[in-house]
Structures are given as C-alpha cells and as structure tokens.
Design goal:
Layout lengths: L1 E2 L3 E5 L6 E8 L6 E7 L5 E4 L2 E4 L4 E8 L13 E8 L9 H6 L6 E10 L2 H22 L3 H50 L2 H25 L1
Parallel strand pairs: 2-9
Antiparallel strand pairs: 1-3, 3-7, 4-6, 4-8, 5-7, 8-9
Length: 222
C-alpha cells in the first residue's frame, strides 16, 4: 500500500529543501521490494530509493525537493513512479538484474504527481521581492548620462597621461641608446688601433715622414 496514493505535496516558498513523506506498507505474507523513479531526477533526492520490506512492515521514504525559483505561470509536470514486486525466495539483496529479469506483468506500479502548494500571500511576497531585486539590480547596474560622461572623461585623461608618459620614456631611451652606441664606436676604434702593431707602425712612419718633409720645406724657404 502507498500513502499518499495519488499525489505528493510540497509546501512553498521553495527557497530551501522541502521534504514530502511517502509511506509504503507490505500487507502480504511475502517479502516485497520497491524502487522509486521520477521524471526530474536532478530536482529531487529520494532516501531510500529502493529497499526490501518484510511482511507486515512499513517503510518511510523521504522525497526531498531541491530549492528553485517558483514560477506560478509554469505548470508542474513532475511525476513519480513507484514499482514493487514480490521477492523470490533466497534473495537477500536487491540488484538491478532482479528488476530486469522480472516480467512486466509481475510488476506493480503506482504513479504520483507532484503538487506545489504555496500560500497566496507568500506568493505575492515572493513576487514583490523578485520585482524589487530586479529593480535594485537595474538601479545598481544602470548609469545616468552624466555618470557615463564623467567616467569617459576620466578614462580619457588617464589615457592621455599614459600616452604622454610613454612618449617621454621612448624619447629618453632613444637618446640613451644613441649616446651609448657612439661611445662604444669611438672606444672600439681606438682599441682596434692599439691592438694592431702593423697599423700603429704605419701611423708612426707617416708622422716621421711628414715631420721630415716639413723641416726640408722650411730650409728651402729660408
């Protein structure tokens, strides 16, 4: 026997987990087992969802509806299916093969539909709260034209400062590179002369010849 036999009621406002109790009774003299299925497995949590029930025993099943945003304009089509069967002798654990190997005509099925129950006053309060949250969000996200102009002006000033600073840095780097390059060029030229003996000797000879020529020319002119 199944109680309630037709529908499961869940009391709003659905902002937290809501639990409905499902009671299964075994009035027979044989052991039975059950399994619970739903069309919305992500929305519900069922504990236990299958179990053996001894003759004359009763099992309580907790059907837990997860929190969600309730919309009164949306029709609830969630349904549950409770399947039961007589457990063969010698079976001590429920396995998936037990349900697969049992002919469909030996399965007993009970269908339940879900009802979302919420007070009109609570529903109105939730609707007002939802509208207020939407208005606050729009107010927080929205900006007047003056705010936008001010923000754009601030961004423009910051961009101009950054560009000016970047230009000055590039100019300074370019001047520094030119000086260092020229310095390295002059130093390398002098160093290359002293490191080349033949070139140094040639320069000295040219200096001596130039000096002698100057002396000779001076004598003739005198």
């Amino acid at each position: 026997m199944l109680e309630p036999p037709v529908e499961l009621k869940f009391k709003g406002p659905f902002t937290e987990v809501v639990t409905a109790d499902l009671k299964l009774s075994n009035p027979t003299k044989k052991r039975i087992c059950f399994t619970v299925k739903t069309t919305a497995p992500k929305q519900y949590c069922v504990r236990p969802n299958n179990r053996l029930i001894e003759p004359g025993a009763v099992t309580h099943v907790a059907v837990m509806l997860q929190p969600f945003h309730y919309d009164p304009n949306e029709k609830n089509r969630h349904k549950f299916l409770v399947q039961t069967l007589v457990v063969p002798d010698g079976v001590t654990e429920i396995q998936e093969s037990l349900w697969k190997d049992t002919p469909p005509e030996q399965l007993m099925e009970s269908k339940l539909k879900c009802i979302f129950d919420i007070d009109p006053e609570m529903l109105q309060s939730l609707s007002q709260q939802k509208s207020q949250n939407a208005a606050n969000k729009m107010k927080g996200d929205g900006k007047t034209s003056e705010d936008i102009k001010t923000q754009l002006s601030q961004h423009g000033e910051e961009d101009a400062k950054l560009k000016s600073k970047g230009v000055r840095m590039r100019r300074g780097l370019n001047r520094g590179d030119a000086v260092s390059t020229d310095d390295r060029s002059d130093t390398s030229d002098v160093t290359s002369v002293f490191r080349n003996p033949a070139l140094l000797l040639t320069i000295l000879l040219l200096a001596v010849v130039t000096l002698l020529l100057g002396l000779l020319i001076g004598k003739f002119l005198l």
